[in-house]
């Protein structure tokens, strides 16, 4: 078991003919992900190293029945690509694209909720999902991770690699690693992914890696207290971030007194979640819980 | 992107909100000319991206030319909480019967715009929210349907607006939503939203934040330049596609990825150091980007030591190493660099640095070790 992607994944990619899109799609295929198609308007009938390209998501769905879509198109086309994949009946859309306008994200989130409740969006501005040994969709460097029982959900890409690697160095592997992205309106929240890890029999420990901005970590703390029986370790980046400054991610900004790292760590600790102060400490707590 | 009051008011006016006549000026002469043209009394208002202008002496009423001259002279160049006043907004003074409050912000938790209204305007709204939350009416707007006139009237009524101004306030709320949605704003705020003696609602102030990711849809926003608002190094970095934020310390930081860069600042602070900057070299950092990043970090004269913390995913450690060598070949610097390379092509990257044997480049095996090393090196040099 793993969550969201596994050996049954049938992946199709919007933007497969682009430089980054083709590179990462082929990387994902090399890892063992079943890549069934791609979508680039105007390039239907072509192929990328044997992967058929379609003009539209409707054609792609009819032709190769994908159940996961990866979005790799530029920001101004991403919202429509997500909605088109959803309209074609794809159940999981993973959007890697960074820099999508917040209002587009707002519109996409609310249209999915209203018109396509069967489609789950992960991202945008995320590194994707890796279920080690089973499937990789996105840009996570899979070589650093192996199969195991630690589920990771994170707002940041490279920080996830850092934490995951520290855990791997201590001999543990991952059920799934899910990047939910660093934007203000993510398709999936910590809460959504925590619920999946809680239900996944392979996952025994959950690592939640958050950062400044918004209140997703506080909401996660509340959810954990009510609904999660498995141990959760938290990490929050941005203790030294000054208010009013966007720290890279569009969503990582302390507004007034809201969204600080200290408040988030306190909220998690108040609900019994142990919070590591460094990535190394997170790994040490994991060893303690799982038995080194 | 935060806008100055008068820039926000331009957008307000574009969408039909009632504002007072005014002129934006940058010199005392122009301020006086604008005041004479508008007719007295006028208000001389400092244009800075920080609240509390009034208390800091940045907003003054002028009843004649002599007062306009005096206030413009005093306010231009004024330091308001670290923000130097470079621009003034000279506005025709308004008669005020009541001060209300209205705003729309992106509620990340509800994934919807949140409309807020209160008849307790003119003061810090966070104080109202805390002390008398019943006086702050909140309503989520469905972003797919937009605001309806009925909702606007309902909010104005529920908030306790006087019966004879409810229609006028509702007009403002509908227009404020128009600004929010059509200009890709994440915040539109009017505080105070005044009621004039002839019972009309009007925006006396404007606070607008635009979404940087949506600026391509609003090319006119390029004119909303705010002098002195952005650190010059930040501006240079941005032009080169790097995410740089200036901080107060003396340790330059580069991480690949926003989360790892933020985490690096924290780990350095925990090791007793003070970061001089946040710099995300982004996922695909190639040698040219790294070289630029070194230039950007070193252009801050406070920097005494630098930490490179790389966990390569898309980023290849050998490219980072080559970029560093290229930077050192051009910039003569004796500032120590602690370099931690992990991830894609890490062995190759470390080997490149080892063979180059630059005396002020210090390798580190882990993030924690790197942080401790760079803090020690910075202390040696201070």
Outline the structure in words.
The complex is a heterodimer of chains A (292) and B (382). The mean pLDDT of chain A is 95. Chain A folds into 2 domains: 11-122, 3-Layer(aba) Sandwich (Rossmann fold); 145-290, Rossmann fold (3-Layer(aba) Sandwich), CATH 3.40.50. In chain A, 36% of the residues lie in helices and 22% in strands. The two termini of chain A are 23 Å apart. Chain A contains 9 helices and 14 strands. Chain A is α/β, with parallel strands linked by helices and 292 residues long. The longest helix of chain A is centred in the middle third of the chain and has 14 residues, at 102-115. Chain A has a 7-stranded mixed beta sheet with strand order 3-4-2-1-5-6-7, sandwiched between helices. In chain A, strands 9-8-11-10-12-13-14 form a 7-stranded mixed beta sheet, sandwiched between helices. By secondary structure, chain B is of the alpha+beta class. Chain B folds into 3 domains: 21-92, Dna Ligase, domain 1, CATH 3.30.1490; 98-223, D-amino Acid Aminotransferase, Chain A, domain 1; 232-380, Rossmann fold, CATH 3.40.50. Helix content of chain B is 36%, strand content 24%. Chain B is built from 12 helices and 18 strands. Chain B has helices at residues 5-14, 28-38, 65-75, 125-131, 149-158, 166-182, 232-239, 258-270, 287-298, 317-330, 346-356, 367-380; strands at 22-25, 42-46, 59-62, 79-80, 83-84, 88-92, 98-107, 112-118, 137-140, 185-195, 201-203, 207-210, 243-246, 251-255, 277-280, 305-312, 337-343, 361-363. In chain B, strands 7, 8, 9, 10, 11 and 12 form a 6-stranded antiparallel beta sheet that branches. A 4-stranded antiparallel beta sheet of chain B has the order 1-6-2-3, covered by helices on one side. In chain B, helix 10 links the parallel strand 16 (305-312) and strand 17 (337-343). Chain B starts with a helix and ends with a helix. The chains are: A alpha/beta (292), B alpha+beta (382). Chains A and B meet through helix 4 and helix 5 of A and helix 8 of B.
């Amino acid at each position: 078991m793993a969550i969201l992607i596994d050996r049954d994944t049938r992946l199709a990619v919007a933007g497969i003919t682009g430089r980054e899109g083709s590179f990462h799609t082929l990387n994902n295929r090399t890892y063992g992900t079943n890549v069934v198609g791609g979508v680039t308007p105007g390039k239907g009938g072509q192929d990328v190293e044997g992967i058929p390209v379609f003009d539209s998501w409707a054609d792609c769905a009819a032709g190769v029945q994908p159940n996961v879509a990866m979005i790799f198109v530029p920001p101004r086309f991403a919202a429509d690509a997500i909605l088109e994949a959803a309209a074609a009946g794809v159940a999981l859309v993973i959007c890697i694209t960074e820099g999508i306008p917040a209002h587009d994200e707002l519109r996409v989130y609310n249209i999915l909720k209203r018109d396509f409740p069967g489609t789950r969006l992960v991202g945008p501005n995320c590194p994707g999902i890796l279920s080690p040994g089973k499937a990789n969709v996105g840009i996570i460097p899979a070589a650093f991770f192996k199969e195991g029982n630690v589920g990771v959900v994170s707002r940041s890409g490279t920080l996830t690699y850092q934490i995951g690697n520290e855990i791997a160095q201590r001999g543990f592997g991952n059920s799934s690693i899910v990047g939910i992205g660093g934007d203000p309106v993510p398709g999936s929240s910590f809460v959504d992914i925590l619920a999946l890890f809680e239900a996944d029999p392979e996952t025994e420990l959950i690592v939640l890696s958050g950062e400044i901005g918004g209140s997703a970590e506080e909401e996660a703390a509340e959810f954990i207290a009510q609904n999660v029986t498995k141990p959760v370790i938290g990490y929050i980046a941005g203790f030294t971030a000054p208010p009013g400054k966007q720290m890279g991610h569009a969503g990582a900004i302390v507004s007034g007194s809201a969204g600080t790292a200290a408040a988030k760590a306190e909220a998690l600790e108040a609900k019994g979640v142990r919070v590591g102060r460094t990535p190394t400490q997170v790994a040490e707590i994991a060893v303690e819980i799982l038995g080194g | 992107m935060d806008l100055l009051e008068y820039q926000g008011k331009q957008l307000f006016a574009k969408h039909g909100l009632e504002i007072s006549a005014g002129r934006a000026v940058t010199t005392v002469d122009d301020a006086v000319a604008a005041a004479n043209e508008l007719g007295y009394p006028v208000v001389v208002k400092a244009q800075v991206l920080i609240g509390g202008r009034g208390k800091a002496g940045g907003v003054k009423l002028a009843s004649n030319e002599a007062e306009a001259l005096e206030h413009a002279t005093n306010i231009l160049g004024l330091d308001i909480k670290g923000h130097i006043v470079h621009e003034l907004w000279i506005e025709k003074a308004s008669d005020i019967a009541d001060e209300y409050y209205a705003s729309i912000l992106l509620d990340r938790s509800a994934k919807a715009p949140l409309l807020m209204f209160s008849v307790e305007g003119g003061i810090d709204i966070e104080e109202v929210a805390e002390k008398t939350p019943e006086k702050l009416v909140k309503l989520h707007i469905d972003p797919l349907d937009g605001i309806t006139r009925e909702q606007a009237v309902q909010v104005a009524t529920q908030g306790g607006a006087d019966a004879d101004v409810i229609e006028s306030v509702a007009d403002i709320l509908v227009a404020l939503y128009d600004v929010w949605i059509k200009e890709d704003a994440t915040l539109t705020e009017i505080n105070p939203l005044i009621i004039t003696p002839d019972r009309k609602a009007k925006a006396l102030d404007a606070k607008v934040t635009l979404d940087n990711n949506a600026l391509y849809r609003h090319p006119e926003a390029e004119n909303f330049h705010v002098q002195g608002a952005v650190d010059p190094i930040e501006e240079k970095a941005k032009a080169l596609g790097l995410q740089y934020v200036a901080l107060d310390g003396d340790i330059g930081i580069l991480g690949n990825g926003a989360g790892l860069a933020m985490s690096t600042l924290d780990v350095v602070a925990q090791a007793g150091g003070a970061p001089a900057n946040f710099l995300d070299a982004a996922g695909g950092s190639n040698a040219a980007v790294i070289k630029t990043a070194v230039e950007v970090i070193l252009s801050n004269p406070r920097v005494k030591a630098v930490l490179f913390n790389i966990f390569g995913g898309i980023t290849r450690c050998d490219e980072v190493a080559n970029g560093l060598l290229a930077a050192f070949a051009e910039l003569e610097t004796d500032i120590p660099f602690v370099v931690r390379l992990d991830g894609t092509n890490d062995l190759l990257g470390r080997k490149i640095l080892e063979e180059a044997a630059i005396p002020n480049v210090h390798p580190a095996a882990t993030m924690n070790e790197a942080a401790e090393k760079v803090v020690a090196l910075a202390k040696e040099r201070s």
